[in-house]
Design a protein that fits this description.
The complex is a heterodimer. Chain A is of the alpha/beta class. Chain A has three helices and eight strands; from the N terminus they run H-H-E-E-E-E-E-E-E-E-H. Chain A folds into two domains: about 30 residues; about 110 residues. Chain A is about 30% helix and about 30% strand. Chain B is built from nine helices and no strands. The chains are: A alpha/beta, B mainly alpha.
C-alpha cells in the first residue's frame, strides 16, 4: 500500500514536470515555423544596415516570412551584404521586389520590410541565391539630424541644394 | 618546518578527499544498470523530488508574483508594461529557476541526504551491508544520486512554469497588463534552444554538484553526532557556494559570448 502511494506520487511528479516542460516549450518559447522549416536564401546589399542583427525578422506587410541569417561586408566594394532566409512556404516573389530596413515603433527593434513587386511578362521569379536589386537603407537618426541642420544652415545663406 | 608540514598535510587531505569523492561518484554512476535498483530510485525520487514540490511551487509562485509587481512599477513609467512577460520569463528561465531551485534543493533535500547517509554510517548500517556482500555504493548511494539528478531539473522546470503563471496572475489579472502582449512578446523573445534548453542544462549541472556534495559529505562524515551535524552544515554551505560560483561560469559560457 505504502509502495503503491509512493509510485503514485512519483507519477504525479513526472506528469507535472512534463506539463511544465510543455508549457515552457510551446506556450513560452513558441517554436515558429521559420526557425525550423525549409528555407531558401536571398541576398541584399545595403549602404547602411543600422541596427539590424542576425535573427531579425523579414516581414511582408507585418507577416514574418523569414529571418536574417547572416550579415557580412562585401570584400570588393565594402558594402554590407545581408542574407535573408525565407521560408519555402513563400516562394515565387517577382524580381522587382524591394527590401528596406524598418523599425517597429519609435524605439523598437529593426527588421527587414519586404515589398513584393509587380509581376508581368518578362519578369522572372526570385530563386535561391539571387540578389535583390532594389534596397533602401536604414534611417540613421544622427544622419537625419545632421542633414536637417545642414539644410537649415544652407537656406539661411540662400544656397540650398 | 612545522608550518610546511601543516600545509603539506592539509593539501594531501584535500586531495585525497577529492579523490575519494571522485571514486564514490564513479561507483554511483556505474551502479545504474542493475534493474533491481529502479524501485529504490523511485522511492528516492519520492523523498527527494515529490517532498520538495511544495516549497518549490510556493517559492516559484511568489517569486514570479513579486517580479511582476516590481517590474510593473518600473516598466509602466516608460509605457513598456507589455515587456513584463519577457522580463519575467527570461529571468526565471535563465537564472532564478535553476539557481533558486538548486539553493532550495540543497537546503531541503541535500541536508536530508547527508544526515541520512551520515547516520547510516554512524550506526554502522553501511558496514553491515558490506558484511552481507551488498555494495553500499550500489544499494544506498546510487539510487539517491540518480534521483537527485532527475529531480532537480524537473523541479526547476516546474519552478519556472509556476513563476510565469504567478507573473501572469499579478501582472495581467491584478495590474491590468494586456494578456495578449504578455504572452506574445514573451513568445517572440524566448528561444527554445537559447533560453529553455540552457536553463535545463544549468540545473542539470547544479543537480550533479549539489547531489554529489550532499552524498559525499554524508558518506565521508565522521561517524559521531558532532560529525554528522558538521557534515550537514557543510553540505548546505558548500553546495550553495558551488551553485552561485558555477552559475557565473555557466552564464558567461552560455549567454556572455555572442
Amino acid at each position: 500500500m505504502n509502495k503503491h502511494k509512493t509510485e503514485l506520487m512519483v507519477g504525479v511528479f513526472v506528469v507535472l514536470t512534463v506539463a511544465a516542460v510543455l508549457l515552457l516549450a510551446l506556450k513560452v518559447a513558441n517554436q515558429t515555423m521559420t526557425s525550423s522549416g525549409d528555407t531558401y536564401q536571398l541576398y541584399a546589399k545595403f549602404d547602411n544596415i543600422g541596427g539590424l542583427k542576425e535573427r531579425s525578422a523579414v516581414k511582408v506587410g507585418g507577416v514574418t516570412i523569414g529571418r536574417v541569417t547572416d550579415i557580412h561586408l562585401d570584400k570588393e566594394d565594402y558594402t554590407p551584404v545581408v542574407t535573408l532566409s525565407i521560408s519555402t512556404d513563400y516562394e515565387g516573389f517577382p524580381e522587382t521586389s524591394s527590401v528596406s530596413i524598418l523599425t517597429s515603433g519609435l524605439l523598437g527593434e529593426q527588421y527587414v520590410g519586404f515589398q513584393p513587386g509587380f509581376s508581368f511578362d518578362g519578369i522572372e521569379e526570385l530563386k535561391d541565391g539571387d540578389y535583390l536589386q532594389d534596397t533602401k537603407s536604414a534611417l540613421v537618426l544622427e544622419d537625419l539630424i545632421g542633414q536637417f541642420l545642414f539644410n537649415r544652415g544652407g537656406s539661411d545663406s540662400k544656397n540650398d541644394e | 618546518m612545522n608550518f610546511f608540514q601543516q600545509v603539506g598535510a592539509n593539501t594531501l587531505a584535500r586531495l585525497t578527499s577529492i579523490g575519494r569523492a571522485a571514486l564514490m561518484l564513479f561507483g554511483a554512476i556505474f551502479a545504474m544498470p542493475s534493474l533491481k535498483n529502479i524501485p529504490l530510485t523511485i522511492r528516492q525520487v519520492y523523498v527527494v523530488g515529490v517532498q520538495s514540490l511544495l516549497i518549490i511551487v510556493v517559492s516559484g509562485l511568489f517569486i514570479g508574483m513579486v517580479m511582476a509587481l516590481q517590474g510593473y512599477t518600473i516598466l509602466v513609467g516608460y509605457g513598456a508594461e507589455g515587456s513584463l512577460g519577457p522580463m519575467v520569463a527570461l529571468s526565471l528561465l535563465r537564472e532564478l529557476g535553476p539557481v533558486v531551485t538548486a539553493l532550495l534543493f540543497a537546503g531541503r533535500a541535500g541536508s536530508a541526504l547527508t544526515a541520512e547517509i551520515g547516520l547510516m554510517k554512524a550506526t554502522e548500517q553501511l558496514s553491515s551491508l558490506e558484511m552481507m556482500a551488498v555494495d553500499p555504493l550500489r544499494r544506498v548511494v546510487a539510487p539517491r544520486f540518480w534521483a537527485g539528478l532527475f529531480s532537480m531539473p524537473a523541479l526547476a522546470m516546474i519552478f519556472s512554469a509556476v513563476g510565469i503563471l504567478g507573473g501572469h496572475l499579478v501582472g495581467v489579472d491584478w495590474l491590468g497588463v494586456d494578456s495578449g502582449s504578455y504572452w506574445s512578446l514573451m513568445q517572440s523573445t524566448v528561444e527554445l534552444q537559447k533560453d529553455v534548453i540552457n536553463g535545463v542544462l544549468k540545473s542539470l549541472v547544479f543537480a550533479l554538484v549539489v547531489t554529489w556534495i550532499a552524498i559525499f559529505k554524508g558518506y565521508d562524515s565522521v561517524p559521531t553526532s558532532e560529525g554528522i551535524s558538521k557534515a550537514t552544515t557543510e553540505t548546505v554551505v558548500f553546495s550553495s557556494l558551488a551553485v552561485l560560483g558555477l552559475d557565473f561560469v555557466l552564464t558567461a559560457l552560455m549567454f556572455g559570448i555572442e
